[in-house]
Records
---
Amino acid sequence: MPESPDIPPTAPAPPARALRLGVAGPVGTGKSSLIALLCRELGKVLSVAVITNDIYTDEDARFLRSAGVLDPERIRAVETGACPHTAIRDDVSQNLLAVEDLERDFDPVDLVLVESGGDNLTATFSPALVDAQFFVLDVAGGGDVARKGGPGIARADVLVVNKTDLAPYVGVDVAQMVHDAEHARDGGRVIALSRTDPASVAELRAWVLETLDRFRAGQHVATDPGPMAPHSHANADAHVHLHASGEVHTH
């Protein structure tokens, strides 16, 4: 029987849509300001659009429009009417429709930034909605927050320690906070950010562009941070197991 000729692997087809990047974190950590910063840095080289989430208002969308970082029509608000995590994880339909509308109306779109409403340390995006995600903390929230863990801190693609320029005024050791964050993330990527620090802004910008390049090449795979942090129960016979969803759980 003749041998089959070697068939070279088929190159991945380029994605037919924008890279969707989520931004989650507690209230007041600077999610909207981070998005404004990315729009300023990338809006001249990429086609960018933004979805914001608030429970009852469009406050964050109005802030971004007033900042003049993008054409106002490229910034749209979703009023979730429920806990923020519901609309970014449990039922993403509102946000997914809003993202698809933006991609259609401004085709081609390179990057859609989706801002969660402020939530707690368990808030993460569903991979059905975004391809990658930031989780944002800030030094004014306390230097110990990074040690507290949670799915966002531990398993988002990047943890941003924001507003590092405020550290001297709130008594936070940024290096220690970043060290604690890296430990909580098992060495995962942490960016200490201040919008007044060009080096940290360049690091953030470069990560987004590198992720976009991998996405376009078909080399980026969205991961699910999961709604639950690894934990154990008071059981001498406890054993750890991994759920199909990727959640680590111990009984």
---
Amino acid sequence: MTFAALSPDESTPFRIIFVCTGNICRSPMAEVMLRDLVTRAGLARLITTSSAGTGDWHVGEQADSRTITALAKRGYDGSHHRARQFDPAWFAELDLVVVLDRSQERILRNWAASEHDRTKVRLLLSFDAEQAPLNDVPDPYYSDDALFDSVLGMIERANHALFKQLAPAIRQGVR
């Protein structure tokens, strides 16, 4: 996917969703961090971020406390997050569906009703050339605080790479 062809206007923001398994660890991290980048760049009206999970186990719950703590240590606020499950009907309203590992990639491509929707699904690490060979951001849910911090670092770096690719294309439409 190339972002060079984007020409958004202020009435139709570029819509990104991050998807992991339960929407309480990795995808909320990615959502919160990209939203912060977008806001600091003055592009909040042109790019929207959200997150969801492929499973419904945690729907309505806050992000895992270790997610909130890891985010807070780096100056981000994840306390307002509430988990939800991805709905395949959302494909029509989304521009980019960023998944955290190949499991979600397979699931969402299977849920997509068209080839066009399947092309919206991208691995987060694919945006960062140095991390791309890893493919997957590990799920820290069954691990310790150290893995949450490590995963946050991976996501932060990949989000910066994604934003670096996306922002110039979005700014072309800004006057």
